[in-house]
Amino acid sequence: xxxLVEKALTGDKWSIGRLISVFEDRRPAAADQRGEILRLLAExxxxxxxxxxxxxxxxxxxxxxxxGELANRLIQKGSAGAEDSKAAGPGENFSVAVLAIxxxxxxxxxxxxxxxTRVNFAxxxxxxFFRSQASDRELGxxxxxxxxxxxxxxxxxxxxxxxTVGIGQNEIEIQYVADxxxxxxxPLGGDGIQFMKAGIMEIPDVFVLxxxxxxxxxxxxxxxxxxxxxxxxxxxxxxxxxxxxxxxSGLGLDDLxxxxxxxxTIQPRRSMSEKEIFYFEKWVRxxxxxxxxxxxxxxxxxxxxxxxxxxxxxxxxxxxLLSEYQNSGPVAR
Length: 333
Ligand SMILES: Nc1nc2c(ncn2[C@@H]2O[C@H](COP(=O)(O)OP(=O)(O)O)[C@@H](O)[C@H]2O)c(=O)[nH]1
Ligand SMILES: [Mg+2]
Fold this sequence. Notes:
CATH superfamily of the largest domain: P-loop containing nucleotide triphosphate hydrolases
CATH topology of the largest domain: Rossmann fold
Structural class: alpha/beta
Shape: globular
Number of helices: 12
Distance between the termini: 39 Å
Radius of gyration: 20 Å
Order of helices and strands: HHHEHEEHEHEHEHEHHHH
Strand content: 5-15%
CATH class of the largest domain: Alpha Beta
Strand order of the largest sheet: 3-2-4-1-5-6-7
Bound molecules: guanosine-5'-diphosphate, magnesium ion
CATH architecture of the largest domain: 3-Layer(aba) Sandwich
Largest sheet: 7 strands, parallel
Mean pLDDT: 83
């Protein structure tokens, strides 16, 4: 394990893949292994404390294409260093992991969305890592193991870009893991109205108007977006960042990657332990339903108390609950 961790920290893709498989493993024994891996990483002088960046928006808006461009730009940049000792050291460049929630099962037929190849990464580039996960439709779009894998990548990369698809529950949920959220819109996509309905306009830190190579359409959409914002986030419409981009012509990509690089030094929205409490609860709900969650609250005072009782370790708490519920079933006695 020690050796895998050492190698993963150098960017070795095979080792990272091996570690990821432990974080995607749903068997009880894997929880202990995860705890051990994270402990080794947390103590290691070379480990990072990455920022989670959510890239969200309707299928076809250009998220994957933009992510490819952004990732390749971010690894050319270095951190300022001093104020953030756990980022790339001075003179060192950023490292970037992309976690794409694969949409291929999203739409029946699916073919228009089978787009994992759209991100062109040099395979031997150690500062870039790409992983796609199948989305779990019935569980609200985000894969069960997205958060698990994200908490591993947190220690290995300066940025973890998470691409989520569609609009609905999964888009709302991204706010619990992402430190900064970019909503990618395409001109005249009618997205504004859709997003207003779904309550998504409240969430993004930055709006990205992509495909601005269609200049007139982009201009119209810009004003439509401003109008929508003045309605949904009154008083904020001049404060929220709107960046026009074209992944094709390159317009705005430097601005967008600067904006993203700057997020390396912002305070995360939620601490890792807050995120863990949210996802622990979600995990109990997914795995054991409301009955299981009710028992957690009734017998143990809820997710926060349960994790605290297990030395503040998400993984120990998970292993403990798995064996507890396995022995008696999730129904409270
Ligand atoms: N004209 C134009 N097309 C774009 C732009 N960005 C992406 N596309 C195209 O839009 C389609 C969908 O892009 P994709 O990145 O897969 O969107 P995603 O579903 O949001 O990940 C592809 O055919 C891209 O080539 C852009 O800025 N301008
Ligand atoms: Mg995509």
